[in-house]
Amino acid sequence: MADSRGPRLLMDLNNAFKRDPLIDEYDILPVVEPKHNRSPFILENHKLGVEAWAVKVLLKYSANRLIGWRSRSPTEKFIDPQDICNLSRAVLLFNPDNYTAWNIRKELIDSGALTLSDDLAFGALVLSKHPKSPETFIHRRWLFQQLLDHCLSSSSGSNSSCSAPAASNEEVLVNMEGIDVDVGAHPEVGIRLNGAFALESSRLLKSQTICELQVCTQAAEKYPCNYHAWSHRIWIIKHCLNCSLQVLVSELETTRSWTSNHVSDHSGFHFRQFLLRELHNKRSRLQSSSSKDFTSLLQAEMDFIIDLIYSYPNHEAMWYHRRFIFHELLKLDPTQKRTMQQMNTTNIEPAFNIHYNEPLGTQLISQEICNVESSKKSTSNELDQLLAKNYVRWLQSL
Amino acid sequence: MKLYSIAVLLKTPEGKGKILASKNELASFGYFQRATVNEFMTFTSKILVERTATSSRASVKEQEYICHVFVRSDNLSGVVIADHEYPQRVAHTLISKVVEEFPEKCPKPQWSSVVENAVQYPELTDYLRKYQNPKEADAMTKIQSELDETKIILHNTIEAVLERGEKLDDLVEKSEGLSLQSKTFYKTAKKTNQCCVIL
């Protein structure tokens, strides 16, 4: 049955976005049957509500037309690019798994019918309703790749020192950091050929990257253990922020309060594990540039997780994070291990014998076992006892 | 971890739950769901107080939410709705504190006559804000040691709290506190197995 309401609904939706381009949230309202002769779209306070029956009709109509156009069906041969854009929006709002529709948007960007920033804003809107849609995140990565390419190609044209083709990935990254600094300090760069464009696109990249971290936080907040949001954040840090030390340290700082408020969210802890691993790789640069030393960062993380474990019992995710930290500790150099051990001995009960003639690693393990055993006594909770027991068993197997 | 709602109720001699004062924090819910969530929080608070014996505590799990309830010996009751990460002990400490303090706001003889949800208790807003961070809030409360956690009865669903022959669907259907929109919300959410709204 061809539904004549489809075109009308699509028009209503487009008008809603025209009336308020700042829509930042949308939802499906539980109205199963059309009850009154009014538009099923409700626009309030930048939030769009769509009645459930209308979603069904609209989605069917838009998807059919879009896919018809894609497969070159004779009835849908000529559609204006702006209409394609609107059709794909109608489809993706309610079915963000439709990767074909996202690909159509990629083509629209290539042809210039859609801007990168508009599509990023649209994706953020989709994520407000579907916070763990993998296709949406994948599409965003493509968009950021485009932004990065713009920046790199235009900057190599403008800046003679960068014009040599980047041999390694590392060189590209250094190049990017250079752009970052240039934005504020040397406005004369803009006078050079292509410079203005480079400046503009690097500025856009910078502001969009900051927004993107915000988008990731919101998605992680909306859906617990949101693997897609956190791995997208990792991607952004790696590719748009070059894993720079400054970023890694500030991310470690900012996600600290987030994880202590989401103690069962393994994905959040995994993100911190990524940060710590990266910092471990850059530990010598960390030491020289910010006088922060990796061992004390790791020790601080250990203290942090131990405090969380005892404040909020019964959550397994924190114990796995503790395993990770301890495993990282064991990988440290002997001298660093020694400082670790000295930091720890103060709170060890004298009743536990540490054999100082054993290898350092073994000593650290027995020390950690002592720590767990002594604090295990204070909890009567069954599940927590079990989690502690499993952790000790893991330590013993090392 | 999040704290969604604090309510002080009276379990009337007929065994009905009557809200005396309440405050909800709904910012984390979708804009269009807030009214419904609000109604369901009131509805849930009431049915839990109605089905909890006098002078007992219970914590009832429902999807990712946990409702903590305490009915004191004089039938003044408190309900706190939080998520599953929120420490049970802190939630019950908060209830004790609120129930303890409430008679200062509204003396006992007025409990049965006062209009539903009309008692002025502005501190609830502060508590709801401060207790979002249980660690900070916990340091302020001194009664924590008096709370015996082993005496809290645990239930895995709201259905488990209901009396024999009672069904949640029927209670929702019959409820006067829920609007038609909320009832449809409940039905569609149930049909599609969504967990978008409490219950």
TrEMBL record, chain A:
What keywords are assigned to this protein? Prenyltransferase, Repeat, Transferase
Q: What is this protein called?
A: Prenyltransferase alpha subunit repeat-containing protein 1
Does the record carry Glycosyltransferase as a key word? no
Gene Ontology cellular-component terms listed = cytoplasm
List the InterPro entries hit by this protein, alphabetically.
Prenyl_trans_a
List, alphabetically, the Pfam families matched.
PPTA (PF01239)
**Which PROSITE patterns does this chain map to?**
PFTA
The source's superkingdom equals Eukaryota
Q: Which family does it belong to?
A: Belongs to the protein prenyltransferase subunit alpha family.
Metal-binding in keyword set: no
Give GO MF terms, alphabetically: protein prenyltransferase activity
TrEMBL record, chain B:
Enumerate the spans annotated as V-SNARE coiled-coil homology domain: 139-199
Query: What InterPro entries has UniProt attached to this entry?
Result: Longin-like_dom_sf, Longin_dom, R-SNARE_YKT6, Synaptobrevin-like, V_SNARE_CC
Among SMART domains, the record links this protein to: Longin
One GO process term, biological-process aspect: endoplasmic reticulum to Golgi vesicle-mediated transport
The yes or no answer to whether the keyword Thylakoid is present is: no
Provide the Longin domain boundaries: 8-128
- CDD domains associated with the record: Longin, R-SNARE_YKT6
Q: Which GO terms describe its cellular component?
A: cytoplasmic vesicle membrane; Golgi membrane; plasma membrane
Its signal peptide is none
Which GO molecular function entries does the Swiss-Prot or TrEMBL record give? SNAP receptor activity
Q: How does it sit in the membrane?
A: Lipid-anchor
Its subcellular locations are: Cell membrane; Cytoplasmic vesicle membrane; Golgi apparatus membrane; Golgi apparatus, trans-Golgi network membrane
Keyword line = Cell membrane, Coiled coil, Lipoprotein, Membrane, Methylation, Palmitate, Prenylation
Of which family is this protein a member? Belongs to the synaptobrevin family.
Q: What does this protein do?
A: Vesicular soluble NSF attachment protein receptor (v-SNARE) mediating vesicle docking and fusion to a specific acceptor cellular compartment. Functions in endoplasmic reticulum to Golgi transport; as part of a SNARE complex composed of GOSR1, GOSR2 and STX5. Functions in early/recycling endosome to TGN transport; as part of a SNARE complex composed of BET1L, GOSR1 and STX5. Has a S-palmitoyl transferase activity.
Under what name is this protein listed? Synaptobrevin homolog ykt6-like
Q: Which organism is it from?
A: Plakobranchus ocellatus
